[in-house]
Design a protein that fits this description.
It is built from 14 helices and 10 strands. By secondary structure, the chain is an alpha+beta fold. The chain folds into 2 domains: 208 residues, no CATH class; 195 residues, no CATH class. A 6-stranded mixed barrel has the order 2-3-8-5-7-6, surrounded by 4 helices. Helix 1 crosses helix 12, helix 2 packs antiparallel against helix 10 and helix 10 packs across helix 12.
Length: 419
């Protein structure tokens, strides 16, 4: 006895209807196009969202190359007990490193060129534990920043705007004023360029300069105080929780901010763009899924006599409905699985496929002269794959309901009248 006889009746008949006979080749062709449409839609959805995740990851890493996971400051702009704060925060289980810093807005001038910039005073021996900026120094070294030497490391775009290079001098004008015989004068200090860095974010490469923390403290007249303490965590995504816990622990006199709050507008814009792209690409999957409606409507019309015979043999309307739901679900399932396979394959190999296409056609999609990120990144997240697979299957099942309901309402006598 054939093994198919042991299958449930609805599943057996529904699977049989997915195979075309000679007179139903057109219906099978439409079923195939519906399946391929779902597959292409799911493939595009997975690939595009993976690329967007990749760009978000690259930008986040570059931002965190300069910004800290969490920073502790005060509302008056300086910390006098920063050593105690550093020891306190290091006791938190998620904090792996801490470093003090001094920060302030200044005006930099060289020859006839002037540019605003943020001076960040750092301790060279500790800065590498809380940020990646040292790894992005492309000329000179952070070791050249020594207390009292008044060396400065400029962002690459800032150095270009000022027209300076290694060994050149720049004058830093601080908003802190001093009173002299001639009246109120701004604080001026000449620094020597000892390095250049490039993190790949224009905001930092154009507007930030690094000096030794003690030199910055003298420039801003902070004495032994600092602007704050920067922290690095074992998991950057735990930053909001850790910031809240430290804020409670340190008290109301201190301000504790994490990277997601400091750059909230940027990351909120990225998330909004991802949601919009998800909706747009889901519509492509929806169009392909609802092609199943036309396929099943034609199948129902073609199988009127078969449905009538099944009804006369005792099949219930529910059984008839399940038969056509199964047929549509099979189309949706195979289309979704093909799409997931294609999307995952593309997402995992985007960083190889795109350079191959650029080499073959002698083009460059992201020119290094225009974009900081010149390669197309990809970050496949399995949670996204699961959501997309679920959405495609739900849409496919919804598309089967009307044709299946119409088949269940077939009256045997009317269907067999002209047979």
């Amino acid at each position: 006895m054939p093994t198919t006889m042991f299958r449930p009746l609805e599943l057996f008949i529904g699977m049989r209807y997915t195979h075309a006979k000679r007179r139903t080749h057109f219906i099978s062709f439409i079923s195939l196009t519906s399946m391929l449409g779902i597959a292409l839609g799911v493939t595009a959805l997975i690939t595009v969202l993976s690329v967007m995740n990749g760009f978000e990851r690259e930008l986040r890493d570059r931002i965190l190359g300069m910004a800290s996971h969490v920073s502790v400051t005060t509302y008056n702009g300086y910390l006098s007990d920063w050593q105690d704060i550093e020891q306190t925060v290091m006791k938190h289980r998620n904090v792996v490193a801490a470093a003090p810093y001094v920060s302030g807005e200044t005006m930099l001038s060289a020859a006839s060129r002037v540019s605003g910039a943020i001076i960040r005073g750092i301790l060279p021996e500790q800065e590498g534990t809380v940020s990646d900026v040292i790894a992005h120094i492309k000329a000179g070294s952070v070791g050249s920043l020594k207390d009292g030497s008044y060396g400065i490391i400029l962002g690459s775009d800032l150095a270009y705007a000022l027209g300076v290079g290694l060994g050149d001098s720049v004058t830093v004008v601080s908003p802190q004023v001093m009173v002299g015989p001639t009246g109120v004068m701004p604080t001026l200090r000449r620094f020597t360029v000892v390095g250049l860095f490039e993190v790949g974010m224009y905001e930092y490469d154009r507007g930030v300069a690094l000096v030794h923390m003690k030199d910055a403290a003298r420039l801003f007249r902070l004495g032994d105080n600092v602007s704050g303490v920067r922290l690095k965590l074992d998991d950057l995504f735990e930053a909001p929780r850790v910031a809240n816990e430290l804020a409670v622990q340190l008290g109301a006199n201190y301000s504790v901010e994490d990277w997601s709050r400091q750059h909230a507008n940027f990351f909120r814009a990225v998330q909004t763009e991802k949601r919009v792209m998800f909706i747009i690409l889901t519509l492509i999957v929806a169009v392909a899924a609802f092609n199943i409606v036309s396929t099943l409507v034609m199948v129902v019309t073609d199988k009127q006599s078969d449905i009538a015979i099944l009804r006369t043999l005792g099949a219930s309307p529910r059984s008839i409905m399940v038969i056509f739901v199964i047929q549509g679900a099979v189309i949706g399932l195979f289309g979704t699985l093909l799409g997931v396979l294609g999307g995952v394959t593309l997402a995992l190999n985007v960083e190889t496929i795109v350079p191959a296409i650029e080499s073959f056609f002698h083009v460059q999609f992201l020119s290094k002269d225009v974009y900081y990120i010149s390669e197309v990144p990809s970050d496949l997240q399995w949670h996204d794959v699961f959501v997309m697979t679920s959405v495609a299957m739900v849409l496919s099942l919804l598309a089967t309901l009307y044709p299946a309901w119409r088949a269940a309402r077939t009256h045997p006598a009317e269907a067999l009248r002209y047979e």
